[in-house]
Amino acid sequence: MALGDLMASRFSQSAVVSNHLNDDCGSAHGDVDLRRDSDTASSSYTNNASVTTITTTTTTSLAYLPQTVVLCELRHEAFEASTPSGPSDSGLVSKWRPKDRMKTGCVALVLCLNISVDPPDVIKISPCARMECWIDPFSMAPQKALETIGKNLSQQYERWQPRARYKVQLDPTVDEVKKLCNTCRRYAKGERVLFHYNGHGVPKPTANGEIWLFNKYIPLPISDLDSWLKTPSIYVFDCSAAGMIVNAFIELHDWGASNYSGSTRDCILLAACEAHETLPQSEEFPADVFTSCLTTPITMALR
């Protein structure tokens, strides 16, 4: 709201000028107003040079400001008239936009941070990005930092979906994630379940699309995760080589539903990077830059 108030205050003085522009379409009314403003400026001339300069500048701004009003041109009106008001049945938009809106009933947040211990397959630069959910994990004790980050992530999602049920798992094992997924699906029933995975403290996903948890570094196959969470679902994978997981889901879908009990029919995947990429480590951005863009876009855009 503060940004909107600022923009409104900046353009409040142009409202009167815009009204003159709308009134003088096809007539010389605008020229009369400009001549009247010019006469007023010349009559207010005094021996004070600064006053004369200010008056002249004001007259110039009034003369040229209407030219910046472009939203009333015919091309904009024609574009709005050609835009359909209802949902499109054809075209690019209809391919990804669901016809029926679906409620997200449950959100599962899995954070594998392992604070103060770097993954064995990641070489970090110095200085390196450290902030998770806008919290510096090294500003407090590791366990307290982990709990604070998990709480902040839950609050960030709650701004977008306050009515969903949120469950957080911090550095969990495979069994804990299995229990979490089954609980979320049981509660959500036919509604969508969102599964958020932060893998900044564990190795990258394997070539088979397996993700790592904290059960003696035993990877979790995506097929198991999909069979627990079922559909409809949406996954957010904030980790390096996240494209590996997407490729694994595609292979599951291509393998055939007859040979596999799970389903990727109504499944949305959001990955932080491609299979061959690593997460950015620039110090000026948070470590979870992908999550920040999703949950706190305005803060991230200003940053």
Layout of helices and strands, plus pairs?
Elements: H1 2-11, H2 14-23, H3 29-43, H4 49-64, H5 74-82, H6 93-96, E1 104-111, H7 142-158, E2 165-170, H8 174-188, E3 192-198, E4 211-212, E5 219-220, H9 222-229, E6 233-238, H10 243-255, E7 267-271, H11 289-295, H12 297-302
Parallel strand pairs: 1-2, 1-3, 3-6, 6-7
Antiparallel strand pairs: 4-5
Helix pairs in contact: 3-4
Pfam families: Raptor_N
Protein name: Raptor N-terminal CASPase-like domain-containing protein
InterPro entries: Raptor, Raptor_N
Rg measurement, Å = 28 Å
- Beta-sheet strand percentage? 5-15%
Q: What's the count of strands?
A: 7
How is the biggest beta sheet arranged?
Answer: 5 strands, parallel
Uncertain regions spanning at least 5 consecutive residues: 1-77
The arrangement of helices and strands along the chain is HHHHHHEHEHEEEHEHEHH
What does the average pLDDT come to? 75
Give the proportion of residues in helices.
40-55%
Walk across the major sheet and give the strand order: 2-1-3-6-7
Report the principal-axis shape: globular
Structural class: alpha/beta
Number of helices: 12
C-alpha end-to-end distance: 18 Å
What does this entry look like structurally?
- Helix content is 43%, strand content 12%.
- It has a domain of 141 residues.
- The strands form 2 sheets. It has a 5-stranded parallel beta sheet with strand order 2-1-3-6-7, with helices on both faces. A two-stranded antiparallel sheet has the order 4-5.
- The longest helix is centred in the middle third of the chain and has 17 residues.
- Strand 6, helix 10 and strand 7 form a beta-alpha-beta unit.
- The N terminus is likely disordered.
- Helix 3 runs antiparallel to helix 4.
- It is built from 12 helices and 7 strands.
- It is α/β, with parallel strands linked by helices and 303 residues long.
